Amino acid sequence: MSAREDSANLGAAQNLRNNGLIRQRCWHLICPIDYQRDAKGERDCFVGGNMAKRLFTSVVALLMWAAVAGAAPAGGADKKDFQLLMDVAKSVERYTQFTIFDDVSASVNDGIVTLTGKVTMPYKRGDIAKRVASVDGVRSVRDQITVLPVSQFDDELRYGIARSIYGNSNFWNYAAMPNPPIHIVVEHGRVTLTGVVGSEVDRMLARSLASQFGAFSVTNALKTDAEVRDALEKSE
Most buried of 36, 65, 91, 228 (most Cβ within 10 A)? Predict the structure, then answer.
């Protein structure tokens, strides 16, 4: 290994430690590298960096995937719900306790928000529901988020897979983002990869890296940036 490669490898490892991927907020959006804080001290994303520009699609990204992949909004009410979904995503993205080991999606129907997904701690479920309920225009919240069970084996899988993926040179740019876009959801030894990657090559590589730790199964639910863009364009 050259001195330059060794330096890059050390830099990536240090970045993983500095970013604190285990603690860091991660919402289902493709968040750019740079960020600023709003008047309330919460992080607000803005475009910055080549990788961010390549991945950036909209503030709702995979949060909207289930809602828009089936059919595009046709009437005024649907468009209103679509805008409300964007506002919900903005609110939840700023929740400070989200990590790459959590996964949440939402859909909106006539102002009623349905939350689904899995989180690692019970308090996250309540916090997210409260944040969503406070969004202007939300009539009610159906909280269907489930809490993942406590398991040492699951934790070992989470941390091992996270290090393997984000420590790989192909994913150093992903690890540098405030919200690393690949989520690792583990339940009873079964792994599901969710989120967004820039290419089919990255999608397949992430699955390969996740399959080396003795998990009972690995489901690759990652979407490419192009797939998310297409879904969002159809929803407009």
Answer: 228
Q: 231 is written with which tokens?
A: 């879904």
Residue 112: exposure state from Cβ atoms within 10 A (0-12, 13-18, ≥19) = middle
Whether the per-residue pLDDT at 72 is higher than 90: the answer is no
Residues 6+ apart with CB under 8 A from 114: 106, 107, 108, 141, 142, 144
DSSP string, 115-147: EEEEESSHHHHHHHHHHHHTSTT--EEEEEEEE
Q: Which of 61, 60, 67, 74 is nearest to 108 (CA)?
A: 67
- Alpha-helical regions (H) of the chain: 3-19, 50-55, 65-69, 76-93, 122-133, 152-166, 172-175, 200-210, 225-235
| Closest by CA position to 116, among listed 60, 183, 66, 184 | 66
Residue 232: other Cβ atoms inside 10 A:
19
What Rg do the C-alpha atoms of the chain give, in angstroms?
A: 18
The pTM score is 0.72
| Pair 147, 176: CB distance under 8 Å | no
Return the closest-CA partner of residue 78 out of 114, 107, 117. 107
Where is mean pLDDT largest: 20-24, 70-74, 131-135?
131-135
